[in-house]
């Protein structure tokens, strides 16, 4: 399974593709990079550049899934709105390519990769380096964050898939449930 991780940003959007066994036990780096945007460009032209760059990455590297970081709430509402628009463009590119999509909070990504939900950027970068057996820390940090989101997807999507697979086997029997309730009440 190949996962495209995306760290959305209105000036720099990080991306990284990781391949793994799907259950979070082993994975390897395929490629990573950033979409660097000019702050002088109009916001709509930046969104177009992000869209085209992600579409190219998807077409070239053929991921099976896309994992994207959820929006965080900034003190400045304009920043939050712009981040939401960047996420929308990224989600549209993934949906157009019919990728499975997972969305993860920054805190969950840090918790999964570094073991601590308030981990610093350099701690996340170091853990991504270790988990992917890289010689150097992935730079810039936006790309490392995108790789961390992809790694997070391997851990959490695997759990969701196992739960979904187990659901049809777990038949709900109303009579058994009622008997269990009666025993619990006594």
List the helices and strands and how they pair.
Blueprint: E1 2-7, E2 12-20, E3 27-36, H1 43-61, E4 65-69, H2 77-96, E5 100-104, H3 106-114, H4 121-131, H5 141-166, H6 174-185
Parallel strand pairs: 1-4, 4-5
Antiparallel strand pairs: 1-2, 2-3
Explain this structure.
The protein is an alpha/beta fold and 186 residues long. The protein has a single domain (2-185), classed as 2-Layer Sandwich (Nucleotidyltransferase, domain 5), CATH 3.30.420. The chain has 6 helices and 5 strands, in the order βββαβαβαααα. Residues 180-186 have low confidence and may be disordered.
CATH topology: Nucleotidyltransferase, domain 5
User: What is the average per-residue confidence, as pLDDT, rounded to a whole number?
Assistant: 86
Largest sheet, if any?
5 strands, mixed
> In terms of per-residue confidence, which ranges show pLDDT below 50 for 5 or more consecutive residues?
180-186
| Overall outline | globular
Helix content: 40-55%
- CATH architecture heading: 2-Layer Sandwich
Distance between the termini: 50 Å
Instruction: Specify Rg, calculated over alpha carbons.
Output: 19 Å
